[in-house]
Design brief:
- This protein is an alpha/beta fold and 347 residues long.
- It folds into 2 domains: 171 residues, Rossmann fold; 170 residues, Dehydroquinate synthase-like - alpha domain (Dehydroquinate synthase-like, alpha domain).
- The longest helix has 18 residues.
- It contains 13 helices and 11 strands.
- Strands 1-2-9-6-5-3-4 form a 7-stranded mixed β-sheet.
- The structure holds nicotinamide-adenine-dinucleotide.
């Protein structure tokens, strides 16, 4: 097992171990005195993994309940959050009990927000089952739901008490979801770690499972470093947004249908690198992204994408910040006036 210790206001460990969901009860009992554990999951992940998680929790003396909601981003809303609260009341969860988020980023985000707010805050554990959730959303303490006004607009910072990453769960993940997580891993390599990038580019979507624990470890370690310096997202954490400014715009232009988040990020990273960096680097990144069956661009014209960047919630007054990696492993934040950004992007 590999462990990463995260030193945020409330420190916690991330455990990376194949087969660890079958031992989760043991690990969870070492960080909590809870009697009850409410497992929150979606209908796909619940069907695959809740039995193993519940059996392990019960064998360690927990009184276990399960709340399941329909999978997908459409469930990350106030209605499902309120159903979770009602379930926690029915199950008799008290302040000293725990929630267990079993699933991808949707389950992690909404369960984290429930844990941040129910009874003014209770402990929660993340058991991320997508690659994206393992390398990104389960670590760092951002929780949220979507409202009609936009994605992730209602949320809280709430660190989990433990994160358990079992890469065996990734074997049931659809290839497109694995690719989404790889887009974030490629991003970590590009912004901070040339060895990680080299490792990723020497595999592809068909065989990356062989080294996935190393990729998860290195990715989380970079997120750890960034989050420890900027837990509440006041500046440095923005570096994690490489590819995201255009990525969000691409997702929006495609109405959040044809382009998943990971596809948007992959295309966004390639388009920024094409525009601002040496052709050899742009080509290297494109080759890597293509090996994970991710897109390197979009049919959306730049002049139609940029208005989406202007409404990005990371924009400040009349300026916009974006990330450029001029070499693998080195990123810098650039901040320019909005009209200058349009000019730089060729519009
Ligand atoms: N909190 C953060 O810091 C942060 C960071 C990045 C993304 N996010 C959020 O994460 C969400 C996206 O997360 P996601 O990509 O994990 O999506 P997701 O949770 O919707 O999971 C994707 C799909 O995969 C299924 N699935 C999950 N694990 C599986 C497994 N092991 N086997 C088979 N199917 C499985 C799910 O049921 C779902 O249908 C978004 O809401 C995004 O806003 C949060």
């Amino acid at each position: 097992m590999k462990t990463i210790h995260i030193r945020t206001s409330k420190p916690y460990d991330v455990l990376i171990e194949r087969g660890s969901i079958a031992k989760c009860g043991e690990y969870i009992s070492s960080v909590t005195k809870s009697q009850k554990a409410a497992v929150i999951t979606d209908d796909i992940v619940g069907g695959l993994y809740s039995e193993a998680v519940c059996a392990s929790l019960r064998s360690c003396g927990f009184d276990v309940g399960v709340f399941t909601f329909p999978n997908g981003e459409a469930s990350k809303n106030l209605d499902i959050l309120s159903k979770i609260y009602n379930y926690l009341c029915e199950f008799g969860i008290t302040r000293s009990d725990s929630l267990i988020a079993l699933g991808g980023g949707v389950v992690g985000d909404i369960t984290g927000l429930a844990a941040a707010t129910f009874l003014r805050g209770i402990d929660f554990v993340q058991i991320p089952t997508t690659l994206l959730a393992q390398v990104d959303s389960s670590v760092g303490g951002k929780t949220a739901v979507d409202i009609p006004g936009g994605k992730n607009l209602v949320g809280a910072f709430k660190q989990p008490v433990l994160v358990i990453c079992d890469s065996n769960t990734l074997s049931t993940l659809p290839e497109a979801e694995l690719a989404c997580g790889m887009a974030e891993a490629i991003k970590y390599g590009m912004i901070r770690d040339k060895e990680l990038f080299k490792l990723i580019e020497s595999y592809d979507i068909s065989n990356v499972d062989e080294v996935i624990d190393d990729i998860v470890y290195a990715s989380i370690d970079i997120k750890r470093d960034v989050v420890e310096h900027d837990e509440f997202d006041r500046g440095e954490r923005f570096i994690l947004n490489f590819g995201h400014t255009l990525g969000h715009a691409i997702e929006g232009w495609h109405n959040y249908t044809d382009y998943t988040h990971g596809m948007g990020v992959a295309a966004g990273m390639c388009m920024m690198t094409d525009r601002f960096c040496a052709p050899e680097l742009a080509e290297r990144l494109r080759r890597c992204v293509t090996a994970y069956k991710l897109p390197t661009g979009t049919e959306a014209p730049m002049e139609e994408l940029l208005p989406y960047c202007s409404v990005d919630k990371k924009r400040e007054l009349d300026s916009i910040s974006f990330i450029v990696c001029e070499e693998v492993g080195k990123a810098e934040i650039r901040r320019v006036k909005l009209d200058e950004f349009y000019r730089l992007m060729g519009v």
